[in-house]
Structures are given as C-alpha cells and as structure tokens.
Amino acid sequence: MKIAATYDNGNIFQHFGRTENFKIYEIEDGRVLSSQVVGTQGTGHEALADWLKAQDVSVIICGGIGGGAQAALNGAQITIIPGASGDCDQAVQAYLRGELTEGSANCSHHEHEQHQEEGCGGSCGHCGVRHEVIYEGKNAGKVVKVHYRGTLNDGTQFDSSYDRGQPLEFICGTGMMIKGFDLAVLEMNVGDVVNVHLMPEEAYGQYDERQVLRTKISDLPGSENLSVGQRVGLMDARGQQFPVTVTEKDDENITLDANHELAGKELNFKIELVEVNDRA
Predict the structure, then answer these.
(1) 216-257, pLDDT tens digit by residue?
(2) What is the Cα–Cα distance from 122 to 129, expressed in whole angstroms?
(3) Which residues, including other chains, have CB under 8 Å from residue 114's CB and lie 6 or more apart?
C-alpha cells in the first residue's frame, strides 16, 4: 500500500492543484517501510489523479482540494484525506493510528481566502471556480502574486508568505481573498509595498455565537477521539467540508466552534506585489 502527502519543505502543502512534490510512503502491516519525495514535473489539477494512480497510490493526504480534483481522485479510486496540515510524517502516522479519516482531518488552512478549496468546483487555476470580478481597479481580474506578513495589534505574527519562501497567487478583485486584502492590492504596482490595518468587517467578520455547536459525543461518531484545541473537518448537509475547532469537551459533551480563528480580530498586513499577469 502507498500513501502520498502533498509536500512542501516537510509540511503538508495546502493547495492540491498546485502541488509540485508529493512524499510517497510504502506501508506494510500499518507501518512505514520507506518514503521518498517525488516531483510532479508540472502536472496539475485533475491530471494529478492519473499521476498518483501511476505511482500506485491508494490514499492521498492533503490540505485544500477542489471539486474537480476530488472527482478525478474518486474516479481513480484513491481515498482522499483533506484538510490536513503540519508535518507530513506526523500526518501519515496519525492516519495509520486511525486519527485521520475521510472527511475528518486536522485543518488549519487559512491563507486569507474567502473560499476554501474543499468547497469549490468550476474552472479557475486555483480550485476550479470561474471567479467573476466584483471590485474595480487596474489589477481587477488579473492573476497577481504577493508576499505578505500578517500580524495582530499586539505584534503577534499569524501568517507570512516570506517565511514559506513562496508568494501567494490569486485572481485580484474577485473575492478570493478577504475584502480588505483584495482591495489593498487592486491599485498596486509591481514592487509596491503597502501596510494596511483591517477591521473585522474587512477581514473574517465578527465572532458569531451561532457558529458554535454543542452536542453529545454519542451523537457525533468519532468525536470521542478529539481533544480540546484540535482543528477538524465536518461535513454539512450538502457534503461540503468545513473546519471547526474543539473548544470544550467532557465525558459526555463536546463543543465545536466553526468561527474562523481570526474572527472578531483586527488584522495588519504588510503586502508586497511581486507579479501581475492577465488571466488565461
């Protein structure tokens, strides 16, 4: 049996369709016999399913993944474990222990996008959606690459593309990003660096108590194995996955919070525009 994980410098890469390397594990009797990092040589999106099938992969552990790629992997009879994050080796070990299951994986994906790749399906270069321009500006509708650093008002850094060594790519002005981030890039020139302060309404919104689910552990199979602070994926009535955080748990009950980790917070971004290209 072979398990593949989207790979980026030892961690789970968060955009399945843009994965350049997979770490492939040879498994026997529930243990890792060997592993190697294999490059995809430019293969992308749905074509990755055929590539993984050719590698005899049975299970793929990944972060965000679009609807088209999910369908292709299902067609190739490859089990998908979406929403994973952190160290690749640890994620595989968690899967082998039964802690990561289909549709119920740890998730900490937050590159300031309004949509999550798990729920998309269409035709853009990121996750399959044909994004329409909703904000006007000279970069609207263009594919941009930016470096950024995000901090809270107390100076705590919560994310940085500089640390990952790879700029973030998105289609500007289409709502792929949180509103304030998208608007900040609309009129920038390549090489410009701006610093913006965003109120919650321009970022992840105010904290909403209605997004907190309190339920009995017996009513949510698998929740008995969760721990406070863990980020997991749940499925809604339409079969779409959404992330929640375990905030409380006792012998009988569990509380799950579907608010974004940054909901209700003011955010600060340093944004550097690296590249602008017309959309294909």
Answers:
(1) 999 888 888 888 988 877 765 555 567 788 999 999 999 999
(2) 4
(3) 175, 176, 177, 178, 179
pLDDT at res. 65: 76
Distances (CA, A) of 259 to 104, 204, 251: 17, 9, 24
| pLDDT-flagged residues of the chain (< 50) | 103-130
| pLDDT for res 277 | 93
Q: Can you tell me which residue has the tokens 């992969």?
A: 57
How many angstroms separate the CA atoms of 218 and 157, rounded?
38
The CATH number for 209-257, chosen from 3.40.630.30, 3.30.40.10, 2.40.10.330, 2.40.70.10, is 2.40.10.330
Token pair, residue 22, equals: 């997979």
Q: What is the pTM of this model?
A: 0.55
**Contact 104/148 with Cβ under 8 angstroms?**
no
Q: At residue 81, what is the residue type?
A: I
Give me the helices (H) in 65-178, please. Answer: 67-75, 88-96, 161-164
What are 221-232's pLDDT values in tens digits? Answer: 888 888 898 887
Choose the CATH number for 131-205+264-277 among 3.10.50.40, 3.30.70.260, 3.40.50.720, 3.40.50.200: 3.10.50.40
CA distance linking residue 126 with residue 141, whole number of Å = 14
pLDDT at 67: 67
| Residue 193 tokens, joined | 């660096």
Q: Which of 227, 219, 220, 232 is nearest to 250 (CA)?
A: 227
Residue 25 · residue 32 · CB < 8 Å: yes
Amino acid at position 29, single letter: D
Please, are residues 45 and 131 in contact by the beta-carbon 8 Å criterion? no
Among residues 2, 271, 30, 8, the alpha carbon closest in space to that of 165 is found at 8
